[in-house]
Design goal:
The protein has 209 residues and is α+β, with helices and mostly antiparallel strands. Helix content is 15%, strand content 28%. The chain is built from 2 helices and 9 strands. 19% of the residues are buried.
């Protein structure tokens, strides 16, 4: 029986086409299962964080898979300040922070040699971040050099998307988004907006500049 010979370059082209089709399929799949986040106030994100740090991104590597699709991003970050979490506070202490490989999978893109305020969670002992939980996505500058001054007591408060009419008693320990006030430009409040603060005198929470 006569055998048919297949040129080696034909095999290489076929494998290349197959790889491209597979990548296109994975991209489409990740787009179908796109990142969807519930709208959450920044203060709530901070209080729900298992760690919050300021640090400089010094290196980016990738896990297994296709870069830009399913290969997770692994950032090396030099920590300069710790706000939440049991993390090495010594300046120059380096940690690894991981995130999904693409924005459609809620991955966060950080730029090399830039300093960020980073808040996230731990999973299997690893520090991780996601689009839904991060408070800030731009590098640190004069307007966001620190996280808001939120204490453990303030984290007792709840921020709800409600408007409490004048003369009506608001729910205890709740700040209504519709009642939030704007602060003076020199108040130091993020975005010149009042923060939901706990008062031990009133044993209640309210907006405060």
């Amino acid at each position: 029986m006569k055998k048919t010979c297949v040129p080696s370059n034909y095999k290489r082209k076929t494998m290349a086409v197959f790889a491209l089709v597979l990548i296109a399929f994975l991209v489409q799949l990740s787009g179908v299962n796109g990142c969807s986040c519930v709208s959450t106030d920044p203060q709530t994100k901070y209080c729900n964080s298992e760690y919050a740090v300021r640090g400089k991104v010094t290196k980016l590597t990738y896990g297994d898979g296709f870069i830009g699709v399913d290969a997770e991003r692994i950032y090396e970050v030099e920590i300069s300040k710790v706000y939440i979490g049991n993390i090495n506070e010594e300046k120059g202490g380096t940690v690894q922070i991981r995130t999904a490989g693409s924005g459609s999978m809620c991955g966060v893109g950080l730029r090399l040699n830039k300093e960020y305020l980073i808040n996230g969670y731990f999973y299997k002992g690893q520090m991780r971040i996601s689009l839904c939980g991060m408070m800030f996505f731009s590098p640190v500058d004069g307007t966001n050099a620190n996280f808001p001054t939120i204490s453990d007591e303030d984290c007792k408060c709840k921020i709800e998307n409600i408007l409490v009419p004048v003369g009506v008693q608001k729910p205890k320990m709740v700040c209504g988004v519709g009642n939030r006030v704007r602060c003076s430009s020199d108040s130091g409040s993020p975005g010149d907006l009042a923060e939901c603060k706990y008062s031990s005198d009133k044993d209640d929470c309210d907006w405060d500049c």
